Amino acid sequence: MKILIVTGRTGGHFFPAKTFAQALKHEYPQAEVHYVLSQRTSGDLLEEESSNSKYFHYLPAFPWKGLFTPKVFQFAFSFVKAFFQSRKLLKMLRPKLVVGFGSYLSFPLIISARKWKIPTLIHEQNAEMGKANHMLAPYVSKIAVSFSDTRDERFPEKFVHTGNILRNDLFYAAQAKRENDNNHFHILVLGGSQGAHELNRLVTEGVALLSRELVKKIQIVHLTGAKDLESVREKYKNLGVEASVISFSNEMGKLYRQTDLLISRSGAGTLFESVLFQLPAILVPYPYAGSHQYQNAQALTQAGNSWILDQRTAAPQELADKLTSIMNHPEDLAHVRSRIRHILKVDDGQNLTRVAMSLINDKINFSANTEVRLETAN
After folding, report:
1. What is the predicted pLDDT for the residue at 195?
2. Which class does domain 2-163+346-377 fall in?
3. How far is CA 216 from CA 5, 213, 323, in A?
4. Which region among 118-122, 138-142, 165-169, 235-239 has the lowest average model confidence (pLDDT)?
5. Are 261 and 271 in contact (CB under 8 A)?
6. What CATH architecture does domain 170-339 belong to?
7. Sign of dihedral through CA atoms 149, 151, 156, 161?
8. Sequence-distant (≥ 6) Cβ neighbours of residue 172 within 8 angstroms
């Protein structure tokens, strides 16, 4: 039984896909999982899987830059090439199911699979459906969503609420005892797997405006991405801030357990991880890729468990004021932490595995209101 998983090139796409594949293999050892990735996928994401290269297949990237740009012909060529390669791959593997995890890379495989009458499933991480998944909705068999309110009114019968997929190591880490340090206030800053220059700037300039008393109390772990690593490290050093500045980490569970406050973009993966670890957060949605990060952040903020700063208007002083208020009222932070766990549903891949197998076996009819429950994720 072969399953084909197509996913985008960032960690936010790849890690949920990998976790789903692991859950599927755990429940059905006979399953043979193949990944389809962009040729531009970072090698860092694939380091562990490099020895199993026969299960990894690559399609040309075809980023859309607009109709009236010099690259429109390059887009058309790559798009057609991706379709031909998709059809060739389906003919070679004959998968029982094709599962998409967002990005336009899913498009040629999902469309081709439909023509071959292969069941298809897409997973939407965000509160607002991404453009690629929205375009694919008419052609897929089922749409698994992370947020219960995510819908496309054209096809309500296709939706099933599975929750967002998080890695198994994070579930284990969340169950371990939290590493408390009453002498310091621990801040974790995340810009996503690609880093975030404007977030890095806002945080370092905001921290510079804190009182000397608060500066002495904070300890910061800041994941900058590769480009800003040295400059951010130097800024904290000049400010006298105790900070660990790194480009990337494979030990996120350990970092979350040590954290009192998260400052982050509001990609779905990070948002659900913060819920799993009961972390209050200051969220700075990325403003230039539609409104999905803002919609994600709203899901937490409306419940009173996080705060939103708009990158386009927020000044460093606004962040400094918010940090000062939070640090001076630790009882409010404790109250937020105590109620955050049950806001969103998290999944270790088992929920999506049930939906996938239902499509293969055609045994379970999931309706639009179906709730797939996972006891260990509560």
Report:
1. 60
2. alpha beta
3. 48, 5, 14
4. 165-169
5. no
6. 3-Layer(aba) Sandwich (3.40)
7. negative
8. 253
CA torsion sign for 200, 206, 211, 214 is negative
**Can you give the pLDDT at residue 221?**
97
223 and 254 Cβ atoms separated by less than 8 Å: no
Ranges in the chain annotated CATH 3.40.50.2000: 2-163+346-377, 170-339
Q: Which of 154, 101, 144, 145 is nearest to 127 (CA)?
A: 145
Q: Say if CB 23 and CB 171 are below 8 A apart.
A: no
This prediction has a pTM of: 0.85
Three-state DSSP at 197 gives: helix
Rounded to whole angstroms, the Cα distance separating 156 from 143 reads: 9
Which pair of structure tokens corresponds to residue 350? 């088992």
Residue 175 to residue 164: CA distance in whole angstroms? 18
Give the mean pLDDT of 80-95: 94
pLDDT for 13: 82
Tell me the HSE value of 86 on the side-chain side, using a 13 A CA sphere. Answer: 27
d(CA 365, CA 354): 11
The C-alpha torsion from 47 through 49 and 53 to 55, rounded to 10°, is -140
CB under 8 Å to 66, separation ≥6 — which residues?
A: 72
